[in-house]
Amino acid sequence: MIFRTATTGTRPALRRVRTTVAPRPLRHRLGPAAVEEIPFRASDGVRLGLTRVETGDSGRPAVLLLHGHTASADMFLQPETRNLVDVLLDEGYEPWLLDWRGSCRLPYNETGQRYTYDDVALYDIPEAVSYIRGRIGDRPLFVVAHCIGSLTLSLSMSAGLVPGLAGVVSQGVFLTPKLAGRTSLRMTVAGELLKGRIDHIPVDFRKVGLRSKYTPLFALASRRASCPDPTCQMLHNSAWGTGASLFVHGNLSRTTHDRLAELFGPAPLWILPHLRRIELARSVVRWHDTDHRYRALPPNALDAAGRIDTPVLLLAGSENGLWLDSQKLCHDVLARRQPQLDVTYTEIPGYGHLDPFLGRGAALDVFGHILEFLGERR
Ligand SMILES: [Zn+2]
Fold this sequence. Notes:
- This protein is of the alpha/beta class.
- It is built from 14 helices and 10 strands.
- Helix 2 (117-136) crosses helix 3 (147-158) and helix 6 (215-222) packs across helix 7.
- Zinc ion (ZN) binds at residues 227, 229, 232, 236, 249, 257.
- It comes from Streptomyces adustus.
């Protein structure tokens, strides 16, 4: 909902967060008149970012793009490559981009109130979908979602909160999250060690300086790294200290590589307990068990997958160093447990986790699969 006040009805007093400042400007090469930035606030009071790309054609199917945690809508608009928005515009779609509360464009990124992925699934995604529907009427609405954007979308879908989508493309992970073994172990260890001392893992070495409490994390990330850039090491070699790898290095253009600190923000450590619970369950599970505000969400999204009412394309790079073969696992599990669902799996050879969207060759190697899926259902 947009601009809804936080004190209506019988709901308990809602959290106050510093959300008055507008999101950081998007980086793109579209004309200024083509970009409509909508002041958008979730019904629990949190300021989000919602952007519509104006096409001058009011009959186009809409495609909502959901970024991963600590990334932002910028990941679909990179000026330095042929990006997903370019391709969607050329193919006759109307792109919409949501900066959900885990976006690095949002000004409270490092200082705002804590949240869990329940909040994203309950508030951000369904309310953005509802707003977009209000604007596009009965035109088809697709969603293309990456990483945690996709994981939280799976929770919204299995809750029945976003019914009637024309199709969903999920990249990296969907209903069956499976992290690399050492990643889940390090998540546990890092969470315990760092509890109370820091609450975010930064990626931008220039911001934290040479000597800081974060120095050991960067030193750890630099071990056996072949690239001298500390920000790249933190993401490529360590994935915010988890030990995973977020992309195939050679797939990024030099320009994208050099602006990683702009494309990805610090990772909050306080999200780890929810992520760990999800990882242990091998399913997207709700965090809030007793808070009645979250009862619309199923305790376990995989168990509730029968509510999914839209075709799903599961995409993954063959070299995904964060979620491994979660997407293939999801396809196999759904084929067995929910054979009535329309779910397909496509693997992108030679690609990792982020490069299916950020890679310099993504328009050639990846986006065709997305367009084919959308084209068959528009
Ligand atoms: Zn590098």
